[in-house]
Amino acid sequence: MWCLVLNVNVCGIDFKNPVLVASGTFGFGMEYDGIIDVSKLGGLITKGLTLNKKEGNEGIRIHEVRGGMLNSIGLQNPGIDEFINSYLEKMKMYNVPIIANLGGSSIDDYIEGASRLDKTDIDMIELNISCPNVKEGGMNFGIKSSVAKEVVCAVKEVTTKPLIVKLSPNAEDIVDMAVKCVDAGADAISLVNTFKAMAIDIYKRKPIFNNVFAGFSGPAIKPIALRMVYEVSKAVDVPICGLGGIVDYKDAIEFIMAGAHLIQIGTANFMNPKATIEIIDGINKFMEKENIKSLDEIRGII
User: Fold this and answer.
1) Residue of 11, 131, 153, 241 marked catalytic
2) Do the Cβ atoms of 129 and 166 come closer than 8 Å?
3) Alpha carbons 220 and 13: distance in angstroms, whole number
4) What's the CA dihedral at 244, 259, 14, 154 to 10 degrees?
5) Domain with 157 in it: what CATH number?
6) In sequence order, what are the residues at sequence separation of 6 or more whose Cβ sits closer than 8 angstroms to the Cβ of residue 176?
7) pLDDT bucket at 2, cuts 50 / 70 / 90
8) Model pLDDT for residues 152-209, shown as the tens digit of each residue
9) CA gyration radius for the chain?
10) DSSP calls for 11-35
11) Dihedral, CA atoms, 270, 41, 56, 75, nearest 10 degrees?
């Protein structure tokens, strides 16, 4: 008689299973109360937080396309202080690890945001470097490895929390980006964020989104995201959190076999609000059927 081992230890934090929710797709957790048992998740990742409150972008924010969706939310969020004062205690009631996703428009924003989060009892910080650097003309921090390294170095100076750096697939060289971030002190890497994309209203003869471009996510990006997770996992020696188009347990197993310790479910939450629980159950059944006692047996097996 043996039992399955789904728990994963990453950076000293114990996750009861590898299934997390991607930032911006699950609110702060309580939005899914009554739909699923949130306490069964491996962990919660907050909406993208910025130093100050953001109202987000105007105009259309979500647009469905074949194979996924485009989003131009604009990091709408209550700000870090309001998160700490009004949301954190509620999230803690689920008794799962809490990861705060941190964005910013300047290195100073990241430093101050990380400093404030460091004083809380969140478990980890996920650094979103897909944000536009306003001081450099709007180019994302996550495009050039040298810029990303600078941000990671700065944040590591002000926090003792384990730092996961979330990589953009739009980077010039995502493997080099991962290596540089680890060199700068990243304790783990998550990838991939959304792909830069667009859509056009042929009747109005103009872009769907006010900002022209948006982030593309969903099932269509999975093969590319999977390839990137595989490549990065071979290049760095820190845990990997894989995401990008995961909609069922088979997708999840693929990412684990490609080297991921944890996975994140994003767009699938909009397609099927119970996707996370179904994926956890599916992983369980797959392991039973294949006589796999622990995920360690298949992680990075490819």
Assistant:
1) 131
2) yes
3) 32
4) -70
5) 3.20.20.70
6) 145
7) low
8) 999 999 999 999 999 999 999 999 999 999 999 999 999 999 999 999 999 999 999 9
9) 18
10) TTEEESSSEEE-TTSSTTSGGGBTT
11) -120
* H-type alpha helices, 24-87: 80-82
Output the pLDDT for position 1.
45
Into how many domains does the chain fold? 1
Query: Does some domain include residue 202?
Result: no
Does residue 211 form part of some domain?
A: no
- Expressed in angstroms, the distance from the first to the final Cα of the chain is 29
In a domain, 282, yes or no: yes
Q: Is 0.90 topped by the overall pTM?
A: yes
CA-wise closest residue to 190 among 7, 38, 45, 35: 45
pLDDT at position 215 over 90: yes
Domain of residue 274 covers 8-56+75-197+221-297
**pLDDT digit string, tens, across residues 107-129:** 999 999 999 999 999 999 999 99
| Structural domain includes residue 129 | yes
Q: Are 298 and 256 within 8 A, CB to CB?
A: yes
CA distances from 267 to 22, 131, 224, 257 (A): 8, 19, 16, 21
Closest CA relative to residue 186, chosen from 7, 9, 8, 11: 11
Both tokens of 113, joined, read 């945001």
Task: Give CA–CA dist 99/44, Å, rounded.
Answer: 6
* Cα 248 from Cα 73, distance rounded (Å): 25
Q: What angle do CA 38, 43, 46 make, to 5 degrees?
A: 90
- 183 contacts: CB under 8 Å, gap ≥ 6: 149
181 is catalytic: no
